[in-house]
Amino acid sequence: MKGDIKNSNTEYLFRALAAVNTAEEVEALLDDLCTIGEVQEMSNRIAAAKMLASGSTYNEICEATGLSTATVTRVNRALKYGSGGYKLILDRIERRGE
User: Fold this and answer.
1) Which of these, 28, 33, 43, lies nearest to 12 by C-alpha position?
2) b vs e for 74-96, b when ≥16 Cβ sit within 10 Å of the residue's Cβ?
3) Around Cβ 65, how many Cβ atoms within 10 Å?
4) Which tens digits make up the pLDDT trace of 27-86?
């Protein structure tokens, strides 16, 4: 994560997310923490990352998720050159067979 947003509050958020144990707990936390639109946007981005990793085209992803090509480009850049978060989670979900 870029150092310019790291502070005690973001560090606490990271610890809070790491403390979650189940999908139900994640749902409860996100329900309290985020708006419906924010959760939908994040779910569309992770869906785009999954689709990019499986070889889908930008047009297919935009049509399936409603994301703009600019957002899909940002997801693709993060998937290829980012901190590895998308890859870590996509691999972990695949290993679990989810």
Assistant:
1) 33
2) ebbebbeeeeeebeeebeeeeee
3) 20
4) 999 999 999 999 999 999 999 999 999 999 999 999 999 999 999 999 999 999 999 999
Q: Are 69 and 79 in contact (CB under 8 A)?
A: no
User: Which residues, including other chains, have CB under 8 Å from residue 61's CB and lie 6 or more apart?
Assistant: 47, 48, 51, 52, 67, 72
Encode 12-41: b = buried (16+ Cβ within 10 Å), e = exposed.
Answer: eeeeeeeeeeeeeeeeeebeeeeeeeeeee
Helical packing angle, 69-81 and 58-65, nearest 10°: 120
Q: Which amino acid is at 21?
A: N
Q: What is the value of pTM for the model shown?
A: 0.88
